[in-house]
Write a structure and sequence with these properties.
four-stranded antiparallel β-sheet, 6 strands, about 120 residues, alpha+beta, 2 helices, two-stranded antiparallel sheet
Length: about 120
Amino acid sequence: MRYLVILKAAQPDGPPPAELMEAIAKLGMDATNAGVMLDMGGLAPAMNSVRIAVDAGGLSVVDGPFAEAKELISYVVYDVRSKEEAVEWAGRFMRLHRDLWQGWEGEAEVSRVFGPEDFAPQG
């Protein structure tokens, strides 16, 4: 099962500590070596984004930025056996931030990603 973890964190003052970045790199290697991390990255600032909406009037396309962004958003995609395993990997990432970056605050949302098997005809 694939799970998408979306991390939202307040824009902190200053760069992250080097110790944290090293620990994140090690955790990423551990997840890659375990064969569970499929992809990871961070979103570019909203000024590089586009919003596409459908409503009764049709389709509209609006270039960003949409509002002043005060949070950073990153993501990771895991291929794991269970939701609990995805939560464990995400929790490890969050604990690194808590332990190595004083004052850091954020949250991670862990959601299952539907795959082709979820849309296959039953029968």
